[in-house]
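Run: sequence + adenosine-5'-diphosphate -> complex structure.
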Amino acid sequence: MDVRELKRKAEVAELLLGAARRLGETMDPERVYGRFHDLLRDVVAHDAVVVSSYDERDGLIRCDYAWVEGNLLDPQIFPPIALNRKGGGMQSRVIVSGEPLLANDVEERVQAGTGTYYDVDREGNVRKLPESGPPGTKAVMMVPVEHEGRVVGVVQLMSDHERYEPHDLEIFEGLVAQMAAAVRNARLQRERLRLEAAEAAARAVAAERERAAHVLDVVGDGIFLVDGDGTIGLWNRAAAAVTGLEPEGVLGRPAHEAVPGWSEVEARVPIAEGGYSARSVTLPVDAGGRDLWLSFVAVRGADGVVYTFRDLTDERRLDEEKSDFIATISHELRTPMAAVYGAARTLLRRDIELPPEQRQKLLEMIATQSARLTQITEEVLLATRIDGGDLRVAREPVDVVELVRSTVEAMKPQLEPAAVDVEVGAAAGEAAGDRDRIEQVLVNLVDNAVKYGDGRRVVVAVDGSTSGVQISVSDTGPGIPPGDLERIFDKFYRGDPNLTTAPSGTGLGLYIARELVERMGGRIDVRSEAGEGTTFVVELPRPS
Ligand code: ADP
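>> structure
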């Protein structure tokens, strides 16, 4: 190799290195073609450059870049050409053989009908020349683009005036190889960016889902989704907490299998379609032995029907107790009223002369029944005042033993035949409280002990400790069922109100008693066992 040849090789190498650098900077595959052409312009004279890609899946050759006589053309305007495996056009030959091609006799080839040529006018319109027409192109170089041993494209360089020499082909081939590498890199880069963007979007969706799931878990309402095929697709924490059905047991299972009483819910709860507001329906539901009242709302969404429910059992119970209370109060008022009215009518009759004892009895009845009426109205008013927060209780020193003795003494006549005994412990002493209110509580407890006990014997015991003074009222009655124990202090609560034999009452006595005792800084407890009687204990603080 002579010195000139060596020098030329060095120049080519340098040129290609620079080209590799410049092309490698381009991350946009389409812009790589433009840069490649810029580089080419400086080193090999030409009138047209066409970059085509070959897709072996459909066997078509498509134009990716076309520059013809000073015009950059939209590659789309060239229709794809089917690869001709038997040779045919020059492009096909290069793709099939994988060998570059150099020809300085194109004109003759076109005339011989073995080549296709496109002409372009000043406006950039392309026209396929008749094969017999006078083509301008004389010289052409075509180089295959390879990827992993396969030809994936072809780049052609054409000239109307030049002759191309082997060293032109050498430079052209080098540049094409750099271009192909740069295009591949840019495509990979684009694909990587696309994947990264897709991953970021997937992560955002996952985060969004997680947030939504978190929100669903912290809301107090039960929320679940019934998919199009009737299976449970979502079951939030509140749904599990209210119903006692854990997500593992319901998710992915058909609603009618997983949720007891589902057919009732499905039949009764109307499903709001998009845009219409949902109507709630409250239904009784048996949740593992617990009777609940749940208020359901259903809305159809893209993934199925979303059900939301709220536990209204407590509200419902309060409502029921209120209506029970109104019924009870009306009944409670009517009985003494009727008695008073009857007695008064009898006393007013002029047609009969009543014996004095009977008159006395009727007057006594009017007095007792009026007292009962007063007691009922007082209880209702007191409960209302307690709820309204405007009840004040004194906290003064009270001699509890004296108070218990005198109260029991005063009650004795009306409690007969029941016997009420008072037992006083040595440490009794004084308590701090409101004398009248303590008396009221005591009267209520003794009344209850006689009313609900066996009616024979009640023991009121007073004793003390460092913490305070305890007054206990015990009876030997049937006791209070365990299920009722925690509810007897509730407002309006009456044990067994359905029993016609149940003694009359408003269900307010123990509620008022507890409120009063607590306002005095004390507490009230109950101990009871079936058949063993009942003991209420009131503990009041010592005077400070
Ligand atoms: P009322 O007596 O008007 O029903 P209370 O609040 O005083 O209302 O009592 C609530 C319920 O507690 C009663 O209905 C009864 O079932 C139960 N109870 C109260 N005291 C006793 C007792 N000594 N023994 C058994 N049950 C009782």
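>> summary
Residues 130-134 have pLDDT under 50 and may be disordered. Residues 396-541 form a domain with the Heat Shock Protein 90 fold (CATH 3.30.565.10).
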